[in-house]
Amino acid sequence: MFKGIRIAVALVSAAMLILVAGCGGSEQGAAKPGDKIVLGFSQIGAESEWRTANSESIKASAKEAGIDLKFSDAQQKQENQIKAIRSFIQQKVDVIAFSPVVETGWDAVLQEAKAAGIPVILTDRAIKMSSGNAEDYYVTFMGSDFVEEGRRAANWLVGFMKKDNEPVNIVELQGTVGSAPAIDRKNGFEEILKGHSNYKVIKSQTGDFTRAKGKEVMESFLKSAKAEGQKIDVLFAHNDDMAIGAIQAIEEAGLKPGKDIIIVSIDGVKGAFEAMIAGKLNCTVECSPLLGAQLMEAIKDLKAGKTLNKRIVTKEGVFPADVAAKELPNRKY
Ligand code: GZL
Fold it and tell me: Reduced to 3 DSSP states, what percent helix, strand and coil does the chain have, rounded to the nearest 5?
């Protein structure tokens, strides 16, 4: 009897040991929370197809890289981004990354992040500091060259229109006021048009990168041009979402988008390829939102003590309507 009890006790304790090991209690078990890199990411919002794809890329890549992502959506408000960054600082995250909704107004919060010793990575859009060198406040800026995107849109337009002398009236839907893409795309577009004096931007207003606002502003352009007896030949939209909204306004005005009004926009989202296949959009200049993998690689390199390039530029192309059907199946966003 006594021996039997001894054997039973031994069996139970062995079972207990296996149980504890199986629950990750041993060092081979799940990594301790401290092992994971913690990234605080402040996203602008969900204003466009581009932004949605950008957020999906960041979330999927963080999961893939085993990085603990704290993600905040600012609904396109700078004050919400600043609040989120301050909260990341309080939480003592390992790295902060964000896509700045506008270029300026980041001095205080970036000085706080620096003082806390938390490295900052800029994705998608750049910043300007009112004092000091902006480059001292972030480790790297990864994203597109928006000035080049504006140049590409204008160069495609001039090549497509083939009008060297007769007037070409352009209306422009700008992105968010004060944002790097809106400022730089406008500058790049106008830089090329300086060499083509018959091309004139006759109306220009922000559509805040959204379809709804793009439609609303295009309606006002059409109304005022009609009242002033002006012909609109071209729409240049700083993103595809505003162009798609404007296409609805053009059709509701009884005109044919892509024919009566030539449309060139930027991003290269699926919706733009579908509009080109339908003959309603003439060209989209690619601006890739798929920055997630590049961001996680940069974070791992940073934590491994490697130095990062201050500027990482994404490679992109130009897609006119005649390649849209062939290219659509390859599109990842
Ligand atoms: C560009 C990105 C812009 C897109 C818009 O990198 O910041 O913001 O062009 C998006 O679609 O809203």
Answer: 50, 20, 35
